[in-house]
Amino acid sequence: MKRPHIYNSPDEVISNYAAYFIKTAKESIQKNGKFTVVLSGGNSPKSVFELLAKEYAHAIDWTSVYFFFGDERYVPSNDPDSNALMAKEALFNPLNIQENQVFTVDTTLEAKMAAADYNKKIGHFFDGQEIAFDLVMLGLGDDAHTASLFPGTEVLNEEVSGVSHVYISGKDVFRITMTAQMINDAHNIAFLVFGKNKAEAVQHVTEGEQDISRFPAQLIDKKAEWFMDEAAAKLITV
Hints:
Layout (H helix, E strand, L loop, with lengths): L4 E3 L2 H23 L2 E5 L3 H13 L9 E5 L1 E3 L9 H13 L15 H16 L8 E4 L24 E6 L4 E6 L1 H5 L4 E5 L5 H9 L17 E5 L9
């Protein structure tokens, strides 16, 4: 684990994470003419998206940014639980991001087909080149899952870069998720974690005994950056 970025409050974490996002975007656009970013879902990144749309609307050339999703809930695109819908409302609409810049999971397809279709979309975008995103945003569940890599699921054994469907028996739902290898192939990976309820998961993932089945986020490459508040980091040694 790289030395984590630890801040006093969630607001500071969000602010510094947004600044890191913009810094990485600027570097990628300057180097390659575009910035490919994989967004995470849930409540934590929503605050980052809103800050980016408000404070950084003119900080970068947003027409050069291409958006993907590390995972998606298997729900209709207009469902409140949809990661894509949250990003659309918090980030895409305020910044007037065009549809051809956003790559979403087609949840009208059967789950397995939805995963295969998304994998194909990603491959087509990279057009035969190595699939390596400029930045993958990640969160961490209090059960140590990240993206939709949940404890005890078969997708944890996937060793190839791609997109898989996964059934989560405890929730009785399907999810679509990038495999750990696709995430790890990215140039930059950054976790966004805050709250005391995440402290045990952070400790297990970063300092605990290796047990992928119980703590799936251990699959993520050690090059990942960690942005945390003191509450989430209270059980680790830094």
